[in-house]
Amino acid sequence: MCGIAGIIHRNGAGDIGTEMTAMLQSLKHRGPDSTGFAVYGSAGSNEYVMRFMVAEQEDLTKGYEIHDEVKRRRAEVDKRLTGLGVNITEKVDATEYAFRYRFTFDGDMRKMADFVEDVEGTEILSLGSALELIKDLGDATTVADQYKLQGFKGTHAIGHTRMATESDVDIRSAHPYWAYPYNDISVVHNGQLTNYWIMRREMERKNFRFQSSCDSELIAVYLADKLESGVDLETAMHQSIDELDGVFTYLVATNDSLGMAKDVMAAKPMVLYESDDLVAMASEEVAIRQVLPQEIDTVDPYDREVRVWRN
């Protein structure tokens, strides 16, 4: 059992960091092991934002030399970025092992990403013009405080609280997932895909890379492949209901859109509120009540239902 949530402001930006933290904290009982946020801020002109880590949180408990090793890995990342001609305009140390860089670059983005991830222990969590993906161990408040997400201004966000069932409790296995190297797409998912390996091999033959063995990542890659081939997001999501087997409800976000889809059995919960200004959805209504405490009407989407909103 996991919890998922999404929110989109339809007429400008809002405090999506604080809002998503409150929503996910109320879903802690559905997944206390880790929490992840995909937040969409203002895209800078010709600028990219990269979130990456050079070690897992638990690695820092394994001996004294790891702290020097973390510094060495980060220095090697900086050296490689400089060598490729990346113009770094801002560096933020989110934690000892996770960082946020803003930069300009007109070279081969995929080559740059591969070169960075070639550094031992290094993984790019997100890379895009608007998307910032933050995930770590602990509940929503713990992660939000650690990464200073309270007060983050943006147009939309999705998030996930995870109860580990089939993979380790680590950052790599936490949601959301993005679809390297396709910028600005992220997915959170509640359920299980039964044709995961068949679909994954198909995507790998198309040169997509997977960071984990989590079936949720497949949805992000699947949708990225559709978008890259010219299919619009809503059509791709309708196609996913027929082509992905299993029981699922998922949320997907791009640089300007937020969508939800339910499979044919609709066994995984989703509650939805929609107004002219705001759309909020979550596995349980209690999460929506954290940002809309007044009297509101909510609905439960039907089986095979797909919805997409744009800001």
Question: Can you tell me about this structure?
Answer:
There is one protein chain. The protein is globular. It has helices at residues 16-25, 65-83, 109-117, 140-147, 196-205, 215-228, 233-243, 285-289; strands at residues 3-9, 34-40, 48-53, 87-93, 98-104, 123-128, 131-137, 156-162, 177-179, 182-193, 246-253, 257-262, 271-274, 278-282, 306-310. The chain has eight helices and 15 strands. The chain is an alpha+beta fold. A hairpin with a 3-residue loop joins β13 and β14.
Number of helices: 8
Largest sheet: 6 strands, antiparallel
Shape: globular
| Rg for CA atoms | 18 Å
Helicity range of the residues? 25-40%
In the sheet with the most strands, the strands line up as 7-2-8-1-14-13
Mean pLDDT: 91
Structural class: alpha+beta
Strand tally, please? 15
Q: State the end-to-end distance.
A: 30 Å
Can you tell me the residue ranges where pLDDT is under 50 for at least 5 consecutive residues? none
Assess the beta-strand content as a share of residues: 25-35%
Note the run of SSEs as H and E.
Answer: EHEEHEEHEEHEEEHHHEEEEHE
